TrEMBL record:
It is found in: Secreted. GO terms for cellular component: extracellular region. GO terms for molecular function: serine-type endopeptidase inhibitor activity. The lineage of its organism: Eukaryota, Metazoa, Chordata, Craniata, Vertebrata. Keywords: Disulfide bond, Protease inhibitor, Secreted, Serine protease inhibitor. Its main location: secreted. Residues 59-114 form the Kazal-like domain. InterPro entries: Kazal-type_SerProtInhib, Kazal_dom, Kazal_dom_sf. Gene3D superfamilies: 3.30.60.30. This is Serine protease inhibitor Kazal-type 6. Coiled coil: none annotated.
Length: 114
């Protein structure tokens, strides 16, 4: 009997992954049609998407104004930020410094490790 339930668990896990892939595929097509405007709106309206099925597909807005002064040094505070370059930055300050250095090419994908 335990093997039956175990098999069902594997099946449901497979089904969920297939559904998530289908949703991502559909959202990707919508995004391509709307030049990215819809995707960013979805990410803003439903923040849970940034850590769920849309993780890595949402570029979030972040205010880096307080870190524009080159004299500002970053602390070692641990508050990971995942950049659009696939790199995990230790905190907001280190992410913002990298973003400013990139000339705006770097975006915030999500909070937390990549």
């Amino acid at each position: 009997m335990a093997a039956v339930f175990s098999g069902l668990g594997v099946f449901f896990n497979f089904l969920v992954k297939k559904i998530e892939a289908q949703i991502l595929s559909t959202l990707s097509k919508i995004t391509q049609l709307a030049n990215g405007k819809w995707q960013n709106k979805l990410c803003t309206m439903i923040p849970e998407l940034t850590s769920g099925i849309m993780k890595g597909h949402c570029n979030l807005q972040i205010d880096c104004g307080e870190f524009q002064d080159p004299k500002v040094h970053c602390t070692r505070e641990s508050n990971p930020h995942c950049g659009s370059d696939g790199r995990t930055y230790g905190n907001k300050c280190t992410f913002c410094k990298a973003m400013l250095k990139s000339g705006g090419k770097l975006n915030l994908k999500h909070h937390g490790k990549c």
